[in-house]
Amino acid sequence: MREVAVLGVGQSQFGKLPERSVTDLGREAAMAAIKDSGLKPKDIQVAYTARIVEPMVTGQTILKEVGVTDIEMINVENACAGGSTAVRGLWKDIAAGFYDVGIAIGVESMTTSTFARQLIPPAKDDLDGQLGLTMPGIFALLARRQMDEHGATLEDFAQVSVKNHHHGCLNPMAQYQKEFTVEEVLASRMIVDPITLLMCCPNTDGAAAVIMCSMDVARKHTTNPIKVAGSVLLSADYTYRQDDITRSPLGGKAARMAYEMSGVGPEDLDLVELHEAFAPEEILRYEDLGLCKPGQGVDLLRSGATWVGGKIPVNPSGGLLALGHPLSASGVRTVCEVALHLRGQAGKRQTPEAKVGLAHMLGGAVAGLEAGACGIHILTR
Amino acid sequence: MREVAVLGVGQSQFGKLPERSVTDLGREAAMAAIKDSGLKPKDIQVAYTARIVEPMVTGQTILKEVGVTDIEMINVENACAGGSTAVRGLWKDIAAGFYDVGIAIGVESMTTSTFARQLIPPAKDDLDGQLGLTMPGIFALLARRQMDEHGATLEDFAQVSVKNHHHGCLNPMAQYQKEFTVEEVLASRMIVDPITLLMCCPNTDGAAAVIMCSMDVARKHTTNPIKVAGSVLLSADYTYRQDDITRSPLGGKAARMAYEMSGVGPEDLDLVELHEAFAPEEILRYEDLGLCKPGQGVDLLRSGATWVGGKIPVNPSGGLLALGHPLSASGVRTVCEVALHLRGQAGKRQTPEAKVGLAHMLGGAVAGLEAGACGIHILTR
Fold it and tell me: Which of A54, A66, A100, B174 has the fewest CB atoms within 10 Å distance of its CB?
C-alpha cells in the first residue's frame, strides 16, 4: 500500500441554516478544500460523499457545481460515522493505487429534515425504538451507569460542555461561540435525566471536505505533508445489550487496530477529536481510545488534561457540542481539524508542536439497533 | 490487482411486500447468497450495502440477523446504480488485497416509502423537478425524440415490454409472470405520453446479494469460478441538457472503459442485463453498450436478437419491467443473473454456452439533475 496524505481541508458555515441547500453547503466546503489544497477541480479523480438524511446522488449534485465531472463518485452512509467512511474509502482508493487524488465530503441539512427532528427515529422493525428509546434516552442510560459504576457526577458531565463550549469560543467556524458555567449547563432544560439541553449536541446544518492524495503528489505541493498513518472502519454489535454498557467493545477494538496500523499509541497523541453527541459520552470515549485506563475517564477529565493547553486536548474544535454536528459531516470535519493542528494553522486553539492526532467518530446506536460503525483516522507529520 | 470471482448469488422475493421490512428482505437475499457460496457467515470480511430510501446503517441491521459482525461495513447510495456501486466497492477491496471475501447487498422497500410514491421527487434546489419533470416525464421526452430521430414507433416500445414480460414468465423469481401483447401494452393506462403503464417498471420491494472473493479462495470452492473481468463506476453530466438526448455519453464511456478493462468487446457478449426503467430506454442502452451502431437500436430490437434464444439476449431475467426494480437491489441482482447464466443455472431462460455477460445499471437522472452514475460489470468464465 502507498502512503496517503491530506492535502486540503475545508468546512462550510455550521449552524441552523434551513435557507441553504445541501448542494450549497457541500459546494462551500468542497471549494474551500480544493482551494486549500492548491489543486484544481479537474485534478480530482474520485469522490466519496457522506449523507444520511434524504440522500440522492448528493456528491454528484455538489460536484457538478464545483466543476468536477466524469469521475467515479460514491455516496456513503454510516450514521454518525458516515464522514469517516468517506475518508476511509478515499484512503483505500489512493493507498491501493486506483487513484492519486480524491475528495471526501460530508454534509447534512438537519433543520430541513423531518427525520432529524424525531431525534433519530426507530427502525421499522425495532421494538425498543418504537417504545421510545431514541438517542438521548440511550445516552441517559449510559450516563446513569457511569455515575453508578465510575463515580461520575452531574458536574462532571456539565464540565465536558463547559470545556467544549470554551473551545468553541476559540474556533471562528463553531456554531456556538459562548462560554457556559457548570451551573448554567445543569440549569438548562432537562431532556432525559440526567442529560440537560446544554449537554446535547445541537441540530446543525453544514458540510466539510478533505482532499487526499498519494504522498508523491503531496510532496509536489507542500514541504510539510500530513500523512494518514492509520485508517480503520469497523462495525459490530454494541451499546446496551452487553454486560457493561459503559464499555464500547467496538470503539476499543477499532482504536487498537488504528494504533497497530499506524505504529503510534495513545501516549503519542498530541490531540484528539472524538464523537460526543451528549456530554457524558466524551468521558467514555477517553477510555475506548486508551487515553486513560478503563473506568478512569472521570479522573482524566477532572485533571484538566483534555482542555486546550492541557496534556492531550480533546475536541479543541469545540466538538459536536459547540462546533455542531451535521451527522455525516462530522467524520470529515474531525480529520480537517486534526490536520489543521498538525500544520500549525489552528489559530487560538492550536496544540503546540502537534505531530500526531486522532480523529474518531462513532455512529449507529439508533434505538435498539446495537450495530453501528466506528471510524478512526490517525494523522502524523 | 488480484483476480476477483463471484462465488455466491442470492435474491429475496420481489413484489409489493409492505409487510416485510428491509432487514427481512435483506436477510433473505444475504442468506441465499451465503448458502449458494458454500461459505459461512464468519468467512465474510467486508460488507457493502446499497439503499436509497430512508437509509440508516442498513447493512449492519441486516447482517446482525445473519450472524455477521466485527467487520468493516459500508452503506452506499448511487440512485439506481447503488447496487453496482456496492459490487464495485467490494471488487476494489478484494482486487487490492484489503480483504479476501465479502458480500454486496442491495435492498429497498419501495411500497412503504413516501419518497418512492412521488415517482422520485425533485431535489430541493432543482427548478425543473419542482416544475414536474419526474422520472416518467424525462423518459417520455427521450422516447419522443427516439421516434423523431430514429424512427422508433409506439409498437417498438411496447415490444420491449412484451419481450421482457415473456422473459419474466421464464424466471420463477420475477414479480410478474404474465405474457402481454403489443396491443395490451399500448392500451394500458397512459402515464406520460407516449409511456403507458405497462412500459413502466413496477414499484417493487426486494433485495439481492452477491458473495465475491479472490480467485484463490474461489478455486478452493468451485472448479468453475466466475471471474469479474471488468468493473467500472462513472459519474458525469448527462440526459437532456445536451445536443442529442437520445445519446448517453456517460453510459457509452463507462461501457468503453469496461470493455478495455476486461479485454472483451460487445461482439463477445453472450447476454446483457441492463437498466430499462421505462421500455423505450432499453433501445437506447443497446446503443450505449455498443450492441449495435448509434441510432440502430430499433433495428436490433426488431431483429429479435435480444429475446431469450436470440443472438444476444437482453434482460433474460425479465428486467426491471417484469422482474421488478427495487432501486438499489437491481445493480446487485443483474450481476447475480449474469453469473447464473455463466454457471448454466438459469433454468428456462438459460443462454446456451454463455461465457461472457455484462451487467449494467444507470441511475440519477432525477428531474433536472443531469448528474448520475453508471455501473458496469463484465463477468467471464
Answer: A100
CB contact under 8 A, B124 and A21: yes
Cell of B66: 445473519
Under 8 Å between Cβ of B62 and B107 = yes
Based on the fold, state whether residues A139 and A287 are members of the same structural domain.
Answer: yes
For B237, the closest of A52, A69, A75 (CB atoms) is A69
Last residue of a domain, one of B161, B192, B226: B226
CA B359/CA B145 separation, integer angstroms: 26
Segment (H or E) for A209:
strand A206-214
B97 neighbourhood in chain A, CB within 8 Å: 96
| Whole-number Å distance between alpha carbons of B361 and B276 | 9
B296, three cell numbers: 440502430
Residue A138 and residue A94 share a domain? no
- The tens digit of pLDDT for each residue in B60-76 reads 989 988 989 899 999 99
Side-chain-side CA neighbours of residue A157 (13 Å): 30
Which of B61, B77, B89 is nearest residue A55 as measured by Cβ atoms? B77
Choose, out of A17, A52, A75, the residue to mutate when testing the contact with B (most B CBs < 10 Å).
Answer: A75
ipTM of model over 0.90: yes
Considering only CA atoms, give the Rg of chain B: 19
- Pair B147, B275 in one domain: yes
pLDDT tens-digit series, residues B260-296: 999 999 999 999 999 999 999 999 999 999 999 999 9
- pLDDT at residue B134, rounded to an integer: 75
Instruction: With CA atoms as reference, report the closest residue to A75 among B86, B78, B52.
Output: B78
Q: Within this chain, do residues A246 and A295 fall inside the same structural domain, yes or no?
A: yes
Please tell me the total count of domains within chain A.
2
Which residue in A has a C-alpha nearest to residue B62's C-alpha? A371
